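Design review, sub-item: ligand-bound model
Attendees: FS, YL, KQ
YL presented the inputs for the 1,3-dihydroxyacetonephosphate complex:
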Amino acid sequence: MDPKEILKKAQDEKYAIGSFNFSTAEILKAIVAAAKETNSPAIVSTSQKEADFVGIREAAALVEAWRQATKLPLILNLDHGKDQEEIRKAIAAGYNAIHFDGSSFDYKENVRQTNKVVKYIREVEKTFDCSILVEGELGYLRGSSAINDHVLEIKPEDLTSPEQALDFVEKTGIDSLAVVIGNAHGIFTKSEEKLDLERLSQIKEAVGDRVFLVLHGGSGIPENDVRKAIESGIVKVNVNTELRIAYKESIEKELKDKPKETTPYKILSPALDAVKKVVKEKMEVLGCGGKSIN
Ligand code: 13P
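KQ shared the predicted structure:
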């Protein structure tokens, strides 16, 4: 399975692959079940902290077990990797996609650090004859994967500039580019995420097909905007908060409804179903159903 081929097919056929975060084995199981039922390729992701909780080698082993059991193309991605050491550990564990988030640096330093990661990964690919996707990030993505009750405020300077996007892609050599176009991490109860689709089209025009465009903060964005963003070139959509909410609310309900229940798989089975339902709904919006290439 070549992760670049999977995204290339999505780019050519104008659908997107979902990147879904997991921090427990049953959330991963729910994502895989949704992918299986819809015959979709899927990106399964851990942030550094999520990987720390599952265990980075354990996360890779679980995903490999699911690949063998389902024959699905499952790409294991390090989400918002910020530290070169963590990236090395993820690659050593068997991750086949790395998102390096250098967006907290100034532009020049973001280019320098991202290019360093790209060079390292290209060496690994040559040495081990494998394919690893590298994603860079340009722009400042606000929020966190949680329910935020303040008003979402995105400043004009947070947004990805189309001219800078081309320069960034050329100087870093990344495969994928995460853009900031009005998206943010998490769900905002007092405002709505509104995508600047015009800016996205300008970015796409500037970079063409040389990179896969990525939309982070996939929770809480109106479905129609996500569909339009895919028409305008988005190939990967990251979702975390909506899965977390489905998981938590289901467990809360189970514990409340059945206070005497102590069997973990009984408490957690409805949570698995709730997460699976959200993932299947997202996959429907992304248009990746039936696109699994074995
Ligand atoms: P949400 O939590 O808003 O879905 O964003 C997830 C994400 O972008 C992970 O990188």
